[in-house]
Fold this protein.
Amino acid sequence: MTTIAPPICIGCAHLVGTLRDPRCAAFPAGIPREILHSKVDHRQPHHGDQGVTFEPRTEKDAEYAGWLFRGDEGAKSS
């Protein structure tokens, strides 16, 4: 059985869409698949994000982002 971790987007202060229609201040036309699939750590700048990166809504959201990208500090950035 495969477990899929939710993207950090769910805890981001910039999320304005839903996970069915994921949009945010950084990507108003739609969050790129590589971010949604946690292949890119959007705590770091990503091409086309207009200078807006992940901003946790709560301390738990910040902790989750740290756990999700543990050991990959910046390694998944583009």
User: Anything to note?
Assistant: Residues 74-78 have pLDDT under 50 and may be disordered.
